[in-house]
Design goal:
The protein is of the alpha/beta class and 1166 residues long. It has a seven-stranded parallel beta sheet, with helices on both faces. Helix 4 (90-100) runs parallel beside helix 5 (115-126) and helix 9 (199-208) packs parallel to helix 12. The protein folds into seven domains: 5-67 and 577-758, Rossmann fold (3-Layer(aba) Sandwich); 111-211 and 257-281, P-loop containing nucleotide triphosphate hydrolases (Rossmann fold, 3-Layer(aba) Sandwich), CATH 3.40.50; 295-392 and 499-575, 3-Layer(aba) Sandwich (Rossmann fold), CATH 3.40.50.300; 396-495, no CATH class; 791-816 and 1056-1161, Topoisomerase I, domain 2 (Orthogonal Bundle), CATH 1.10.460; 817-863 and 998-1052, Topoisomerase I, domain 3 (Distorted Sandwich), CATH 2.70.20.10; 870-995, Topoisomerase I, domain 4, CATH 1.10.290.10. A hairpin with a 5-residue loop joins strand 38 and strand 39 (1013-1023). The protein is globular and about 105 Å long. It starts with a strand and ends in a 5-residue tail after the last helix. Helices cover 43% and strands 19% of the residues. The protein contains 42 helices and 44 strands.
């Protein structure tokens, strides 16, 4: 039996505790020896029961904090119900938990989900020292009345610290000096846009929050320093130290400022003061999230507004910006002439009050994202339809837009400017570099970083080329897939469809009402067919079910009835189930990718960890999820002096591995797992601990309905999930494991629909592998250190036989050194070895020509290779591009986390039906559907999932185009190698789904010298089928007498092993796994046992490596032999499949080590 123990992790006393106890939500045995009758009990009842038992037994310690939080939540929920008359629903409970936990954040939900009610109730709950800020006086009066109805003592229009003060932004600006000494406990902002837009208002708010001016100035200084020196040659240690000093000063004050909650915002902070406020509060105001659409999208190819007469009262007309204010007035008059009361929706709230009361039938406003008509109207009963007068557009002067390198690239390509040299430099730019280049070009300034400034100069040159080319073309309108360029008078303009404005504006007609989403109707009066087609394409990409229907095919009478029906008290609306959750992934990149995939997430930074709040809509189920990265493993086997290298093996056969929190020294960058916060390697106390992550995850888990652990789908990922579940189960009883093999919307939704339990068989397999690695590694490493009197020695079951292969080849290579002649005939190379230089020279002198005869040829069918597995990808990338395995794995990891390929650690060649459909879509698109041959490539690997393949029907050129159009879509920084590896994976996969090719196999006789005749078979031709996307090497040897190319050099009759050779051996001999191929070679390099040749990437054993292997193989052959290692790998697979007991295998290993190692340890001379 294996009993996993965590050091210092009891939620009550902080002592050692078993995983079983934590998974059951219990304190350790010392705190609570016996407990019965709480299985299946909800978390609140369990916490209360355990608290009372601990209290009665005088054992209560840290558990009091958990009990306090739970009971505080209960108290505020009850208070909410008493004040409002109903139970808070899931999302309101999330907000209330955050509020009573004193968190600052943005409420990013749409209107109708109870944001204002929640804020008001919490304000009354506090009772005093509350400031509630609203944009207008009319809204202030409404809020005051509602607060008074809830029982609050309200100060309406001025600040009174004994009450709930409701003020306008105007009051805050005018009376800033009179309230400088006042620091409220809680500040609520109903609409943050006025604060975000105005630096002056930001100054006032900073003062109100109790942030000292010197701290505020430090935050501004920090942002300026980061912006100025991030890419500068002058980024010295002195400046780094100054940045660290400012960060520390800000961090020390963060917990002392007032709690700030923002109910809504539509824009993001851009000014330096607003960014400083974000830095100080730890969160960024975010736009209202789009939970769902219930809109009928239509269009008509004219600007005829007579449709208003048929649809009647309850409409909003949004006029495209280029028509100007005068057109708004004309349209208002036209509507009034139809017999309706119309009003302009441009500023203020009077128009909205009149519309709500039925005094106005139709509102007319501007189709501007920042306009009040697009973002400021929430009338679920009154507003039924939206008419767009003209397609909503974004229009900018082209030559100003060209300051953006990506826009320059797209426009240049469109008009035929050759960007081949510049393209790769632009595609790998980070967002910060892009912004710096853009502003330097606009302002005409140089960049204090040579490489970027050189690129700035190149961009200026290409801008001039684009301008000249446009003049040369001379056309009035140029159309691309994503934008239109027009010439008006002497100026060029670039025009895009404004999809965000369309979504926000049309969304005014479909609002939440009585728990459901009303039906809305949207009509675009098309004034530009090209821009409309681009808008359609973008909408269908974001919302695949979007379908723009021609107005001529719509029964308006029927639509009108449906619109009115959905607004009745018991009308037909779309209803949702909203639940809250915490989604834990391994890497920050993956967290960002998933959060951005479903919405524009809000971000709050807690203890330097970004927490992304995103909305995931799955039919009528809506998840409001906090997405956070655990950054991999949070615990490892302890380095403390416990048992045998951190594992106790008891006489009863019980094995207790002790795990400690992982810590990282920020000075020497080494990780360790001991109780002390002092680095055991360099003595530094500048240490980062996983406890910070655990504390954050516990805090978040306590606030949500469910916890989803989405670590990688392998044994390592399962162990991470097991550890996280152990640490979080006392704080949330709904902890689930979810897995996906690709980061796509479809895969994430499928995973959320099918939550699972932790697979303990996989966990046990990982535990056995890790313990075995620790026992073998530490035992042999210590013996090596003693033997060779040095540090940085290491050994392991897999490393040692691999080192043996490399040592063997290196020694044979060195002992067979001589001279080599390379004979090249039209790309076909022949290698001849000579032990003596004289013989080589004689051979070359006699080799004037070679004679080539074609003996025979035959037609053959060439079958496509299966899609990549981990080993075949590493082999192919090394053979084609000479890339080392660890670099290929790093790039594949990036591509996986960006959502571009499936999981890259796999032994399976299987392809799912989803993958087959991707191939079909792409081949159809390329006109190659006749070559489509669907293959699932059934894998013999048990439990395997799928090969490495792309997640979309998008080749590398389309990927590059997508990055040009949306540089910030992916959360990774691309390099040229990313495109190479993606292209390799993509083409190999597509080839695997295509028909056979037809080849010609030719047999040649090559006569070098009179005694040297070589018979060889070569592929001389290949065409059709998969060759169209994945070409193979062919040789067309000239016949007759040919003068060859000859090169000579020192060499050996033995070939050194390359990365690809080693990986092939690991695979064929059964000692490699997808997670160990690259790591094994990397470890051997790190220990100084092998080096990689620069030109051909051969692996060569060093003297240090040779000595280490000879010692290990002579003393511990049975422990580290190839055969023993393969057997262990097989046993680990059997444990994962529940065919073998984990404890049995560990006891065998322990006995094996004791038998072989202990006698040697007792010897005087190792």
């Amino acid at each position: 039996m294996i009993n996993v123990m965590y050091k210092n992790s009891c939620p009550n006393c902080g002592g050692d505790i078993s995983a079983d106890r934590l998974l059951n939500g219990l304190p350790c045995e010392t705190c609570l020896p016996y407990i019965n009758g709480i299985d299946g009990v909800d978390i609140i009842s369990k916490v209360k029961a355990l608290y009372n038992i601990l209290l009665n037994n005088d054992k209560i310690k840290n558990y009091w904090n958990l009990y306090y939080n739970i009971t505080t939540f209960e108290t505020v929920f009850k208070y909410f119900k008493d004040k409002t008359g109903y139970e808070p629903w899931s999302l309101q409970k999330l907000w209330l938990r955050r509020l009573v936990s004193n968190q600052s954040f943005t409420m990013s939900a749409p209107t109708g989900l109870g944001k204002t009610t929640t804020l008001m109730t919490y304000s009354v709950f506090i009772g005093q020292d509350v400031v509630y800020i609203v944009p207008t006086k009319s809204l202030m009066e409404q809020v005051c009345k509602r607060l008074e109805k809830l029982g609050a003592q309200v100060s309406c229009g001025k600040v009174d610290q004994r009450k709930v003060s409701v003020i306008t932004i105007s009051y805050l600006n005018k009376n800033a000096n009179s309230i400088t000494s006042y620091k409220p406990n809680f500040v609520a902002i109903d609409d943050a846009d006025a604060v975000i837009k105005s630096g002056k208002t930001t100054d006032r708010l900073v003062s109100l929050l109790g942030i000292p001016n010197d701290v505020y100035e430090s935050a501004i200084q920090l942002i300026r320093l980061r912006n100025k020196y991030y890419f500068s040659n002058e980024f010295t240690e002195e400046i780094k130290e100054k940045i660290r000093e400012l960060e520390l000063k800000i961090a020390e004050f963060k917990d002392k400022i007032s709690q700030l909650v923002i109910a809504s915002a539509t824009i993001r902070p851009k000014g330096i003061k607003q960014k400083a406020l974000r830095l100080l509060t730890g969160f960024e105001p975010s736009s209202i999230q789009l939970y769902a659409r219930n809109i009928i999208d239509t269009y008509t190819d004219n600007l005829d507004l007579s449709i208003v007469k048929e649809l009647g009262s309850g409409g909003l007309i949004l006029v495209s910006k280029e028509y100007g204010r005068s057109r708004l007035n004309e349209i208002k008059k036209y509507v009034e002439d139809l017999g309706f009361n119309a009003k302009l929706a441009i500023s203020g709230r009077k128009f909205l009050d009149d519309f709500s009361q039925g005094k106005v039938d139709i509102l007319v406003g501007s189709a501007s994202y920042y306009g009040v008509a697009v973002r400021g109207i929430d009338e679920p009963k009154r507003l039924k339809y939206v008419i767009y007068y003209g397609v909503p557009k974004i229009k900018a002067k082209l030559f100003d837009a060209l300051s953006n390198p990506f826009t320059l690239l797209r426009v240049g390509k469109m008009i035929g400017v050759n960007f081949s040299e510049l393209q790769n430099k632009i595609l790998v730019l980070s967002p910060s570099e892009t912004q710096l280049l853009k502003f330097s070009i606009i302002k005409g300034e140089t960049i204090n970083y040579q490489k970027l400034d050189q690129l700035r100069q190149e961009l200026l040159y290409y801008i001039s080329l684009v301008k000249d080319k446009l003049k040369e073309i001379g056309e009035e309108t140029l159309i691309s897939d994503n934008f239109v360029i027009t010439k008006q008078n002497t100026n060029y303009y670039i025009i895009y469809p404004d999809m965000i404005t369309y979504l926000q504006g049309s969304g005014r007609a479909s609002r939440l009402y009585n728990g459901g989403l009303t039906l809305g109707f949207s009509i675009i009066l098309v004034d530009d067919k090209h821009i409309f087609e681009i808008l359609k394409k973008k909408m269908q990409k974001l919302f695949p079910n979007t379908n723009f229907t021609s107005l001529s095919n719509i029964n308006l009478s029927e639509i009108k009835t449906k619109l009115e029906e959905s607004r009745k008290e018991e009308g037909n609306r779309v209803h949702f189930n909203i639940s809250t959750g915490l989604l834990i992934v391994e890497s920050p990149t993956k967290a960002k990718t998933i959060a951005k995939m479903f919405s524009r997430p809000s971000v709050r930074v807690i203890n330097k960890v970004p927490v992304y709040e995103t909305i995931i809509v799955d039919g009528n189920q809506i998840y409001v999820l906090d997405v956070v990265a655990s950054k991999g493993h949070i615990v490892d086997l302890t380095l403390e002096d416990i048992g045998y290298y951190g594992i106790k093996v008891e006489d009863s056969g019980i094995i207790k591995p002790y795990y400690d929190l992982i810590k990282k020294c920020l000075d020497c960058n080494k990780t360790f797992s001991i109780t002390s916060d002092k680095c055991p390697y360099c003595g530094s106390t500048n240490v980062q601990t996983a406890q910070t992550t655990i504390n954050l995850l516990r805090e978040l888990a306590l606030s949500v309905d469910k916890v989803f652990i989405a670590s990688d789908p392998d044994t390592e990922g399962e162990k991470i999930a097991y550890d996280l579940a152990s640490f979080l189960s006392p704080y949330n009883s709904n902890v689930y494991r979810i897995t996906y093999h690709e980061i796509t919307k479809k895969a994430i939704l499928e995973a959320l629909r099918n939550p699972m339990k932790i697979n303990t068989n996989l966990v046990m397999s990982q535990i056995v592998r890790r313990i075995e690695d620790r026992w073998i590694g530490f035992t042999l490493s210590n013996l090596l250190k003693t033997k060779f009197n040095g540090h940085n020695h290491g050994a392991g079951r897999v490393q040692t036989p691999v080192l043996g292969w490399i040592v063997d080849k290196t020694m044979k290579y060195k002992s067979s050194m001589g001279y080599v002649v390379y004979i090249d005939i039209a790309g076909y190379s022949i290698k001849m070895y000579f032990s003596e230089r004289k013989k080589m020279e004689e051979y070359i002198n006699n080799l004037q020509v070679v004679k080539i005869e074609k003996i025979s040829e035959e037609k053959i069918l060439l079958s496509p290779l299966p899609p990549f597995t981990t080993d075949t990808l590493l082999i192919e990338a090394n053979m084609k591009y000479k890339l080392p395995a660890n670099l290929v794995m790093k790039i594949a990891q990036d591509l996986f986390e960006a959502g571009l390929i499936t999981y890259h650690r796999t032994d399976s060649t299987h392809i799912s039906s989803v993958g087959i459909e991707i191939a079909k879509e792409y081949l159809q698109k390329q006109g190659l559907i006749k070559d489509f041959v669907p293959r699932s490539w059934e894998s013999s690997e048990e439990g395997a999932h799928e090969a490495i393949r792309p997640t979309r029907a998008m080749d590398v050129n389309e990927l590059i185009q997508e990055i040009e159009e949306n540089p910030y879509k992916y959360s990774i920084r691309f390099s040229k190698l990313h495109f190479l590896i993606y292209d390799l994976i993509f083409r190999r996969f597509m080839a695997s789904q295509m028909s056979h090719a037809v080849g010609t196999k030719s047999r040649y006789l090559i006569k070098l010298n009179k005694d040297d005749n070589i018979n060889t078979e070569l592929l001389s031709n290949a065409e059709g089928g998969f060759i169209k996307v994945y070409p193979v090497k062919v040789y067309n040897l000239p016949l007759g007498e040919v003068k060859p190319k000859v090169n000579t050099g020192k060499g050996s009759s033995e070939q050194l092993l390359s990365y690809s050779d080693v990986i092939s051996l690991m695979k064929s001999k059964g000692i490699g796994r997808p997670s160990t191929y690259a790591k094994t070679i990397e470890n051997l390099v790190r220990h100084g046992y092998i080096v990689s040749s620069k030109r051909k990437s051969y692996l060569i054993a060093t003297n240090r490596g040779i000595s280490a292997y000879q010692f290990l193989s002579s003393k511990f052959y049975d422990l580290v032999s190839e055969g023993t290692t393969a057997k262990l790998m097989s046993k680990l697979d059997d444990i994962a499949l529940s065919k073998l007991s984990a404890s049995t295998v560990l006891l065998e290993i322990f006995s094996e080590i004791s038998t072989l190692v202990n006698p040697l340890k007792s010897e005087q001379n190792v």
